[in-house]
Structures are given as C-alpha cells and as structure tokens.
Specification:
The chain is built from nine helices and 15 strands. By secondary structure, the chain is an alpha/beta fold.
C-alpha cells in the first residue's frame, strides 16, 4: 500500500523537499505526497487519519520552536515523531518587478522573521504581508511589479519569475528541523528523545526538581522551551529534547520517565528518533 504523506504546500516549499527526503529515509515505497494549505491542515491530516504520515517544521535556528507544531503534539498525544532532518534555509527575494519598485513583501511569517534585518536595510518602506507558505506567497506576486515574495530559489523557475536578491536571510547558518509524524512508533535507532510536561503545582522548585532528575540520569538537554497551557495566565508546558547516545541509551530514558511522571500533571512522550543534518546542492 502506498503511503500518503501530507506536507505544507503547494509545490516548491522547503517542506516539500523535507517530505521527499524523510519519506526516503523512512523507506516509503512510491509515497503519494499531499500538499496542504496551512500548517494546521497538515497536522489535522495525520491527527484525523486522513493520511499515513505528515512532515512539519518543528524548530528554526533563528526563530526557535514552531508553535503550531509544538501545540499540536501536545493536543494530539497519539501522534509520534519517527524521524527528523535539519535543512539549511536560504531565502531569495522573488518578483516580476524591479527591487526599486517593491512596496509589499509576502511570505510565511517564519520566513519574514528570518529576513527582517535585510528587509529593514534594503526595503525599509515595504509592507510585509504574511501568507500560509512561501510557495503561496510566490504565486500571489505573479503579474505584480510592486510585490515581491520571500522563498526558495526553486520557486523561481516553477512560477516563471526572477530573482531580485539572494540570499537574504539575516543569519548565514539559518536552518530548520523538519519531523516525520506518524501514529506508528519508531523502531530504529535514535539520537533524540522528545517529550513535554505540565507540573502538578506552580510552586518554588517544582520545575527544578524535574530538571534535576534529568541531570541525575546524566542526560544532556539539546532543547528546552515553554509554551502557555492556554488554560490560565502563568501556566506553562515545558518541551524538552534529550540526547540519546552510547552513554545514555533509550533504556535510561524509559527509566527517567518513571521518575519524572509523578511530578507532572500531564506528560506526553513524542517519541525517540534519529535526526540528521542534510546538505543540499
């Protein structure tokens, strides 16, 4: 049976590149790629069993965690992360017009944020307009002489536009981690374990006790961040990634979970998986 893989479309996005790479790493045989309009649509596709897998961005080196993905993993605990890749991100300014005539710049909010300094220096009077994806932004500027989009260079040829500037991201090492979501558990090797929890009580030392347990087990945290619980002001969910290696194996993580869960009101294990860096041509 051919797997259906949802991703943030339309064609030409970095998410599409990630979907092809992750599907190959997962050994999917001739997968069917399903572009979705908006990140929430991608996540609902896997959450409501409309597809077999989904590829979403979870973290950017400049802007941090992708909140829609983090919130969805907490909301739908049956979804698991099974694989991850880190893609280098290099944005281009794309248009039909000339850079001197550009008064509006469209793109996904993350892309706009990743190029904010460049836009301030080079197009200080231009209005920035958010879209569902970089690919959608490029489609929306076709035929306009005063609009430009931020997106991948691969979109230039697809949409028949031209490159006004490249690269325009503020940080040369800009990269994004994409994850493959599935209802199946990963059964292969892992180098990351991801989970989140809310605490039983908001008292002095509550979070410290949980963090100390992680330290006591000898794990290194490669990521820790918080998101509001959306129930009341001042209540947060803590998201953590732990490094899995020869010194701290997955068995140690399973033991850690037994000790940390009693401190938590809710605990969600997103899965253990292998994450690798990808070099693009």
């Amino acid at each position: 049976m051919r797997q259906q893989v949802a991703y943030l479309g339309p064609k030409g996005t970095y998410a599409e590149k990630a979907a092809h790479i992750l599907s190959k790493l997962a050994n999917f045989q001739t997968p069917i790629f399903v572009p979705c309009n908006g990140l929430h649509s991608v996540i609902k596709s896997i959450a409501y069993n409309n597809c077999d897998a989904a590829v979403v961005p979870i973290e950017n080196s400049v802007e941090g965690g992708v909140t829609a993905t983090l919130d969805a993993l907490w909301k739908f605990p049956d979804i698991n992360i099974t694989k991850a890749i880190v893609l280098p991100i290099k944005h281009a300014l794309i248009s039909n017009g000339e850079i001197s005539n550009i008064s509006e710049v469209l793109s996904h909010p993350q892309a706009l944020a990743q190029c904010s300094e460049w836009l301030s220096d080079n197009l200080p009077d231009a209005i920035t307009l958010p879209t569902n994806s970089t690919s959608e932004a490029v489609k929306m500027v076709k035929g306009s002489k005063f609009r430009a989009a931020i997106g991948s260079k691969s979109l230039i040829e697809i949409e028949g536009l031209k490159e006004l500037a490249f690269p325009i991201n503020d940080v040369p090492g800009n990269c994004t981690r994409f994850v493959l979501l599935s209802r199946e558990l990963n059964s292969s090797s892992s180098n990351i374990a991801s989970f989140a929890f809310s605490l039983l009580s908001n008292k002095p030392g509550s979070l410290l006790r949980a963090i100390n347990l992680i330290s006591d087990f000898g794990f290194n945290m490669s990521k820790i961040e918080s998101r509001p619980s959306k129930r009341e002001l001042g209540e947060y969910i803590i998201y953590i990634d732990l490094e899995i290696n020869k010194n701290n194996k997955i068995e140690n993580f399973l033991e850690l979970k037994k000790h940390i869960k009693p401190l938590c009101e809710h605990f969600v294990d997103f899965g253990s998986y292998f994450s690798e860096n990808i070099v693009l041509d």
